[in-house]
Amino acid sequence: MKSMTVVVVGGGVVGFSTAVCIAEALPYCSVTLIADRFTPDTTSDVAAGILICSPFPDIPLEQQQRWFKETIDHLLAIAQSEQASEAGVLLSSGWQIYKELPADKVPFWSAFVLGFRIMTDRELKRFPDHKFGQAFTTVKCECSNYLRWMEKRFRKAGGQVVKQKVNDLQELSSQGYDVIVNCSGLGAKSLVGDSEVYPVRGQILKVQAPWLQHFIRDGEGQSYIYPGMHSVTVGGTRQVDDWRLEVDPEDSQDILERCSSLEPSLSRARVLGVSVGLRPSRKNVRVEREMVLLGSRQVPVVHNYGHGGWGVTLSWGTALEALGLVRKCLHEMRPRARL
Ligand SMILES: Cc1cc2nc3c(=O)[nH]c(=O)nc-3n(C[C@H](O)[C@H](O)[C@H](O)COP(=O)(O)OP(=O)(O)OC[C@H]3O[C@@H](n4cnc5c(N)ncnc54)[C@H](O)[C@@H]3O)c2cc1C
Ligand SMILES: O=C([O-])CC(=O)C(=O)O
Questions:
Q1: In angstroms, rounded to a whole number, what is the distance separating the alpha carbons of residues 88 and 145?
Q2: Which of 43, 89, 139 to probe ligand 1 with, by most ligand atoms within 8 A of CB?
Q3: Is 322 touching ligand 1 by the criterion CB < 6 Å?
Q4: Where is FAD annotated to bind (predicted)?
Q5: Which of 204, 279, 282 most suits a substitution to test ligand 2, by most atoms within 8 Å of the C-beta?
């Protein structure tokens, strides 16, 4: 008999990671995931899915390192298992290159990717406009495969999935859930009235170029080329406060020009598709809990949203953090329950 009920709002990579963490760790909880969009229609489906990130300014670096490490360790184990192709998780080696020396020559996550090193002058000769570079192996997640696989894993752990828009947290409180977990990404703007969340529009192309084996990421990720399981993702754009979900042909042309200057053979690649996503951006990702008065009840709400361009990279680590917060809420409600 399941004694407690938890509802997770969000069917992207953050929602499914969080729901799986809770359902697998707390078998006495009944966990329901509610979302109005699922794969292939989420922002997560558009992500290049590479594990790389920049730090959030006001969150302790050790905590962000832990989130990165927990996510990459979790995904590396999948990439090296027989589940790898179904889950869409693969190792990816390549170069991050800079025209000017970056402030951080060694990023905060360098110890958690594999074989991180500064590129030699000989390696850099291939990129004559660039002065500096880093070589390493990280993980790439084909998000649409990963989301399907995570949904299966969630159902196997007893989780239930409902397709529905939540207009107000009050609706969930009326249904009697003990804890609400908010992984609604950009949706948090209206769902919990967070005016700090804003879109950063990103457009990418999928091209057929099976001869490309290594990723190339220019500077802070304005341009990138990521070979994957089914195609090569080339991007990108970072248009702040731009809500357009339509493909912009000028962006496509610009992306192809920028990426072809990094990898000239791309001009021979066939374009398979173009997609647009709105990164759920926020100065700092929000992973915290609060008590919210919904009708006559004080209901614990755990937030996990606002990952910007790093939602795949931090998905498992922030999900584990959210699980810890859910545990605390349940402890406080049922002090003697075995949590
Ligand atoms: C072009 C591009 C490239 C990217 N590349 C990378 C990358 O290489 N690496 C990386 O780490 N990240 C990358 N990102 C960022 C990544 O896509 C996001 O950080 C991530 O997808 C956020 O996941 P999420 O689950 O929070 O949001 P989403 O995927 O947007 O999911 C939100 C979910 O909440 C649901 N929802 C919202 N409001 C409600 C409501 N009121 N009721 C019901 N359901 C609701 C939605 O239906 C959806 O299911 C990229 C993004 C873009 C656009
Ligand atoms: O920056 C990258 O390399 C990919 C990414 O996360 C994004 O476009 O948001």
A1: 5
A2: 43
A3: no
A4: 36-37, 43-44, 166, 308-313
A5: 279
Q: What is the pTM of this model?
A: 0.97
Looking at residue 58, its amino acid is D
Yes or no: say if 217 and 97 are a contact pair by the CB < 8 Å rule: yes
Question: What CATH architecture applies to the domain 4-197+282-333?
Answer: 3-Layer(aba) Sandwich (3.40)
Quickly state the pLDDT bin for 220 (edges 50, 70, 90): confident
The DSSP string of 250-289 is HHHHHHHHHHHHH-GGGGGPEEEEEEEEEEEE-SS-EEEE
For ligand 2, what atom is nearest to the CA of residue 309?
Answer: 9
For residue 74, is it left (φ>0), alpha (ψ between -120 and 50) or beta? alpha
Distance 274 CA to ligand 2 centre (A): 15
What is the ipTM for the molecules in this complex? 0.99
Token look-up 């190339």 returns: 216
Q: Which two tokens stand for residue 81?
A: 């298992």
Q: How far apart are CA 100 and CA 118, in angstroms?
A: 14
122 CB-near residues (< 8 Å, 6+ apart): none
Q: Is the CB of 197 under 6 A from ligand 2?
A: no
Neighbours of 291 (CB within 10 A): 12
Place of tokens 């406009």: 129
Q: Which atom from ligand 2 is nearest to the alpha carbon of 217?
A: 3
Tens digits of residue pLDDT in 62-105 = 999 999 999 999 999 999 999 999 999 999 999 999 999 998 89
334 CA to centre of ligand 1 in angstroms? 33
